[in-house]
Amino acid sequence: MTVSLPLVFVLGVIAWAAIKFLGIRLWVAVVIALFGFWLSHTVLAPVIESGTRSGVDVVNGNRD
After folding, report:
1. Maximum pairwise Cα distance, the chain
2. DSSP state of 21
3. What are phi and psi for residue 22, nearest 5 degrees?
4. CA atoms of 39 and 37, how far apart (whole Å)
5. How confident is the prediction for the chain on average, in pLDDT?
6. How confident is the model at residue 17 (pLDDT cuts 50, 70, 90)?
7. What whole-number distance in Å separates Cα of residue 26 and Cα of residue 15?
8. What span, in angstroms and rounded, lies between the C-alpha atoms of 33 and 24?
9. pTM to 2 decimals?
């Protein structure tokens, strides 16, 4: 059985768990999210996307 989850959902669950169980303050999570949005408008965005896709492929076992 294959379950498909968007990466943003998985990251949201991780952020929620960090706030709930690790005691991370909400404003820290908001600052990290805003930094991600800022970073997505730089020249590093394609490199980050490529690295993320490669990492997801490794986890899923999709080796070309």
Report:
1. 41
2. H
3. -100, -10
4. 5
5. 84
6. very high
7. 9
8. 13
9. 0.58
